[in-house]
Each structure stands twice: as structure tokens, then as C-alpha cells.
């Protein structure tokens, strides 16, 4: 089992806000966007911080990042490699499954799925088994 590491919410909030700024400016390559989105989806944000609710600003920052990431990814979907498509779609599905709304509107999420469906089609022969499993 992988040990849990406790990182202060304030540090993660700053990291998320910086990533949001880069995504907003369009300064992220597809692989970087997919990797960050995957990493942020893997975060377990707990609210049991001894009475302080430091998780609220982090959740808000994550919501902003995922909203911007969905728009940027939808615009640049053809530029993503198979692994990037797989990781990004897994990240959005994982956040939705965990009942952590991304902050993205239904239209933004639908645009992301349509764009990545179109981008993945011609590249399906390049997908490895794990990448296909991530998208299932």
C-alpha cells in the first residue's frame, strides 16, 4: 500500500491556482495539461483538519482549474497523444464519480467528450490496453 502524505491545503491551493493561471493563458502543452489534471484528480481532499476548514479554498481552486482545463483540452484535443487522452478522460470521470463537481458546465463537459471522442477515433490503434481501460 502506498502511504498517504499530508500536504497543507494552502500549499496545494497555491499550486492549483498557478496551474489554473497557466491553463487560462494557454501556456500548457497537452501532456502537461493531462498530467496535471490526472494528478489533481488523484488528490484526496479531507476536511478533518482539526476544526479549520482549509479544504474549501482548495476545492474552489480545483473547480476553477478543472473548468479551465476542460475548455482548453476541448480546443486542443487533436494535439493529445493516446496516453494524454486516456489520462485526461480518466481524471474527469474520477472527479465526477467522487461527487466533486468540476465546476465545468454541462456544455463544457459535453464539448470535452465530443472533442476527445473525435480525437481518439483515428488514434485508437495506438492505444495500449491500460489506456483503453482508463477510458472505459
Can you walk me through this structure?
This protein is mostly helical and about 140 residues long. It contains six helices and no strands. The protein has helices at about 10-25, 30-40, 55-75, 80-95, 105-120, 130-135. The chain starts with 8 loop residues before the first helix and ends with a helix. Residues about 100-105 have low confidence and may be disordered.
Task: Report the principal-axis shape.
Answer: globular
**Number of helix segments?**
6
Range of strand content: under 5%
Termini separation (Å)?
A: 25 Å
Question: Strand tally, please?
Answer: 0
This entry's quaternary arrangement is single chain
Backbone CA Rg? 15 Å
SSE-based structural type:
mainly alpha
- Mean of pLDDT: 75
What are the SSEs and their pairings?
Layout: H1 9-24, H2 30-42, H3 55-75, H4 82-97, H5 106-120, H6 129-135
Helix pairs in contact: 1-3, 2-3, 2-4, 3-5, 4-6
Sum this structure up briefly.
By secondary structure, the chain is mainly α. It contains six helices and no strands.
Amino acid at each position: 500500500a502506498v502511504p498517504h502524505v499530508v500536504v497543507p491545503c494552502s500549499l496545494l491551493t497555491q499550486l492549483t491556482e498557478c496551474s489554473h493561471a497557466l491553463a487560462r493563458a494557454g501556456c500548457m502543452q497537452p501532456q502537461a495539461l493531462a498530467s496535471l489534471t490526472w494528478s489533481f484528480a488523484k488528490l484526496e481532499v479531507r476536511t478533518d483538519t482539526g476544526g479549520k476548514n482549509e479544504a474549501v479554498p482548495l476545492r474552489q481552486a480545483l473547480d476553477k482549474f478543472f473548468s479551465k482545463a476542460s475548455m482548453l483540452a476541448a480546443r486542443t484535443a487533436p494535439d493529445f497523444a493516446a496516453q494524454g487522452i486516456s489520462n485526461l478522460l480518466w481524471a474527469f470521470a474520477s472527479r465526477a464519480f467522487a461527487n466533486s463537481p468540476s465546476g465545468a458546465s454541462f456544455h463544457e463537459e459535453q464539448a470535452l467528450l465530443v472533442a476527445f471522442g473525435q480525437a481518439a477515433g483515428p488514434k485508437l490503434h495506438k492505444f495500449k490496453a491500460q489506456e483503453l481501460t482508463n477510458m472505459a
